[in-house]
Task: structure prediction
Amino acid sequence: MKRISTILLTMLLLAGGASGCGNTNNTGSDPDKLHIVCTVFPAYDWTRELLGSHADEADISYLLDSGADLHSFQPTAQDMVKISECDLFLYVGGESDGWAEDALKSAKNQDMHAINLLEALGDAAKEEEIKEGMEAEEEEEAEDEPEYDEHVWLSLSNAKLFCDVICSELSALDADNASDYAANCAEYTAKLDDMDSEYRDMADNASCKTLLFGDRFPFRYLTDDYGLDYYAAFVGCSAETEASFETISFLAGKADELHLDTVFTLENSDKSIAEALIRNTNDKNQTIAELDSMQSVTADKADDGASYLGIMQKNLDILKEALK
Result:
């Protein structure tokens, strides 16, 4: 993804500052509130959970609330103003939101706290993995830094680490309520632990331990956690949408070889690659199952009760059925 230039960011900030006057959604509208900006839904939901009863006392913005994919999202001028003036900014820190680093450099609030999820993972962050049979990416200029898998939230162990970091930052910003944040974090971590155990039981008892994806594959953190294998058409952060006959043929061959009766896709997929894959298998009777990577959760879904734990539970139920 192309990074927004510093010049363009400055123009956006200036434009946003002018248009934001009198806007009740401006993060600077209530100086008595904590102003928090999150790029992706999991970070937004974790923050709400840790704030608990204090959530109404904070102004929490979720930037990808229209359902835009992290890999194609571009911030608006208003988004840039919100980031510039917020108290806490949570972002993934990968190539897709490289614009965030420039936004931080232009921030008006010099006391802002920021959480880069990939940076918080440290050595546990995983580089993108090219598996056998994957569609080749278009050639790009060589970069000095490796490209990391950005879907860090799809690991319950990562989620526990991130919640600890968020709790620490909330406590630093609002020391009067630090004990409440710590209690909320402990309660939520216990729920993450319980679900982690359920996932581990699912994987341990699965007769099939390989996932076949006719789609991008953002679940590597999850499969690595539980010793599962996978084959997929594209890497998790791929911009490709068309799979070659070679890729489809390879995946269909894996379905036959491993006797796989399920082909997975992501939320909002048109399922065309999965359907083509199935047509090229011997039996042509595999079912298609959809896993939710939480890359397109809208504000309406969040308001209707969508949650990180709820989506992870639905994914678990689908995996139990498919891998039994």
Remarks:
- The CA atoms of residues 75 and 213 lie 30 Å apart.
